[in-house]
Each structure stands twice: as C-alpha cells, then as structure tokens.
Amino acid sequence: MGVPPHDGAKTRRLIGDVLQISACLETLERDAFLTRHIVAKMLQYELSQLVVQGRIAREVADERRRHVAAREQHPQDLVSQLDGVRRVID
Predict the structure, then answer these.
(1) Rounded CA separation 43/41 (Å)
(2) 7 in helix, strand or coil?
C-alpha cells in the first residue's frame, strides 16, 4: 500500500474549506473583540452613572442634614434675637 493518488479537486476543496474556516474565525475574533469593547464601555457608563447617582444621593443627604440642623437651631436663633431686641428696648 502506497500513497493514494493525488486528487487535485479534493485538495482545492479542502484548501477552500480551510480558508473559509479561517475567515470565519477572524470574523468571530473581531466580533468578540468588538463585543468585549462595547460591553466594557457599557459597564464603564453604568459605573459612572452609579458614581454620579451616589454623589447626588450624598449631596441630597447632606442638604437634608443641613436643613434639619438649621430647623433645630432656628428656634434658638429666634430666642437669641428676641433677647437682643429686648436688651436694646430696655
């Protein structure tokens, strides 16, 4: 038993199949790269939105604390002002 006879048509078909598979793999690699890039950008955007929302939430909480503190101090301020006015009048 020796080497089977050379079949040029079969070899060309196999070469064509290999080239087609290679092209498909390149396309898949490119698509995978683009998909990873897009997903990374989307995650980066979502993270930045969470950071912004966190900042806004902290600012709102800080503002609420300032208002509560101002309301708690306001009655004392009024009493102090009235005492000052009384002293001026007396």
Answers:
(1) 5
(2) coil
